[in-house]
Amino acid sequence: MSLVPPVPITRREAIRRTLLFSSSLLAANWLPAGPAATDFGPDGMHLLAFGDFGSKNENQAAVAQAMARFARQLRRPLTAVLALGDNFYGRMVPERFERDFERMYDAAALPCPFHVCFGNHDYEPVSYGHSPEPAKWEVQLDYARQHPQSRWKCPAKWYALELPQAGRPLLKLIVLDSDVQEGALTPQEKVAQMRFLEAELAKGTKAPWTWLMLHHPPFTETTKRRDNPAVLRVVEEALKKHPISVCLAGHDHNLQHLKVDGYGASFLISGAGGADRYEVNESRRGFTRMEFGFNHFHLTPTELRAQFINVDGACLHAFRRFPDGRVEVLT
Ligand SMILES: [Fe+2]
């Protein structure tokens, strides 16, 4: 969906766009993977995204190293890294911030803020004990508050940012807490978050791109999971009434780019940051891959390019999207 009025197009262009949108091409997982693109010229903003990374194992380290390697090859500053939740699996001792975040993600290669959202594992108690103890999300908020010099940025369970480029807002990022399951967000918090989301969208923005970022995907092609109606209820009105270009989630430990009937947004899942991978369906809705990796985004006012990159630095899938909602698959 786009608020931009449609531009008249020729019949030939209409056929071309139909091909670009075709599910079979979007789902063409057989296309050969080449090295990720790193030459984007001097303009625009670069972001990385990854999720479900807090596994403190060799897979987390492999993705972290691949992100750092890619960032060095880019030779352009990263504006931010988007951390899509399930940030710490297992017991949450304070040293983990230093070992599993500050040192794990090379500060020289990735010197930018990491904007964080919370996943279901971030709602677990810190040591799984029976006595009252804080949840992992609480210590993550505290860490961000007490360490303003850290790249770990997490001001609240839900928040919004405008990321500027050359002095102008380029991306409005609305970060949500999709933990609507029993024992996570309270009924009052759910109402407050919906009001926040409505208010943020009503405010409008000069940024040409507006994204939603949350942990649980409303739509998925993970074999053991289904589309999530409870999460869709949180974002549905926003997606249907506002020109949101990307809905970015994790939770499913794989990589996906889906086009869903009735919605204009690109639905991306980047939950392959370290936790054991989940199998994917081969789907008519788009690209799905059971592989560790992360996303790179390059944004300018007129184009968004996205790459899904594995731990070897190969680009598994790439597309570009235009402000009028057109999507073109590149790889
Ligand atoms: Fe999760």
Structure in words:
- The chain starts with 10 loop residues before the first helix and ends with a strand.
- Helix content is 24%, strand content 25%.
- The protein is globular and about 55 Å long.
- The chain has helices at 11-21, 23-26, 58-74, 95-102, 136-146, 187-203, 229-241; strands spanning 34-35, 45-50, 78-83, 114-116, 152-153, 159-165, 168-175, 209-213, 246-249, 255-258, 266-270, 286-289, 293-300, 303-310, 314-321, 327-329.
- By secondary structure, the protein is an alpha/beta fold.
- The chain has one domain: Metallo-dependent phosphatases (Purple Acid Phosphatase, chain A, domain 2, 4-Layer Sandwich).
- The structure holds fe (ii) ion.
- Fe (ii) ion is lined by residues 86, 119-121, 215, 251.
